[in-house]
Write a structure and sequence with these properties.
Blueprint (H helix, E strand, L loop, with lengths): L2 E6 L1 H4 L7 H11 L4 E7 L3 H14 L2 E5 L10 H9 L3 E3 L1 H13 L6 H6 L2 E3 L3 E3 L8 E6 L2 E6 L3 H12 L10 E7 L7 H11 L2 E5 L8 E7 L1 H17 L9 E5 L1
Parallel strand pairs: 1-2, 1-3, 3-8
Antiparallel strand pairs: 4-5, 6-7, 7-8, 9-11, 9-12, 10-11
């Protein structure tokens, strides 16, 4: 299942606010052995959102959007999705009920015009209740794909993603992983890691040290038996370089 996330907001591109939703989604997906296929951060313009929407839908089974569900001029997500998919915005009694209940819950008064304008949904969408804020989310089924449109406020996004979206996602396959911290440079390992991937049908990853006096991190990922064989080969290689692994520089995880 290919899952993508589109974060919408000029304030994020201008470094006026820090995005928290992508990290939240990634951490929750990982617990179900799922990973983001693509992550896109885009601004509050119809052209940008439309371009991102069409691009991500083409490569995803599940697309989640974050942001742009209010009524201020920069909140253009619903309108843009409506135009892009050719599905009109229609007045929805369920959405109106959600909005009225949310306003009552947070003890906020709103004029009739506000309630009227907040009561629209994309035709065919399933409204997603917002238990914390006012703006409901939307769930659209596009042939064999799913589009979840959620608000950008982290507390609201997190609750709606956890309660509604996550349970609908099928868990992925476990990936066996082992990581090592080694006193080598990436250039010392390029050919060897390529050999490991080819010979043992695994995936490798290299993370250069960020801090001074720290080591290069190498990850080996794949089927358990294949990874274990690659680990043995890796240890022989390190031994040939005069490197003996200690317990504190070997990190094991079965994800």
């Amino acid at each position: 299942m290919k899952t993508s996330l589109m974060i919408i907001g000029d304030e994020l591109l201008r470094n006026e606010r820090e995005d928290l939703n992508a990290h939240f989604v990634i951490s929750k997906l990982k617990k179900k052995h799922l990973y983001l296929n693509k992550l896109l951060l885009t601004g509050d313009s119809e052209a940008s959102v439309k371009e991102g929407l069409l691009f991500l839908i083409a490569y995803s089974d599940v697309l989640i959007t974050s942001g742009g569900l209010g009524l201020t001029p920069d909140d253009i997500t619903l309108v843009t999705v409506s135009k892009t998919l050719g599905k009109p915005l229609v007045k929805d009694k369920t959405v109106q009920c959600y909005v009225l209940n949310s306003l009552k819950k947070i003890r906020q008064q709103a004029n009739k015009n506000y309630i009227e304008r907040m009561s629209y949904a994309i035709e065919g969408a399933i409204p997603i209740k917002n238990e914390i804020g006012v703006s409901p989310g939307m769930h659209l089924k596009i042939t064999n794909k799913h589009l979840f449109i959620l608000p950008g406020v982290p507390q609201e996004f997190n609750a709606m993603f956890t309660q509604y979206v996550l349970p609908l996602l099928t868990s992925g396959k476990r990936v066996f992983e082992k990581a090592f911290f080694v006193p080598l440079k990436e250039s010392d390992l390029v050919d060897f890691l390529e050999m490991l991937e080819t010979k043992y049908k695994i995936k490798t990853a290299s993370y250069p040290p960020i801090f001074k006096n720290s080591f290069l991190k190498i990850k080996l990922m794949g089927e358990k038996e294949s990874v274990n064989k690659a680990v043995k080969c890796f240890k022989v290689f390190l031994k040939s370089k005069g490197i003996k692994l200690k317990k504190d520089n070997q990190d094991k995880k079965d994800l």
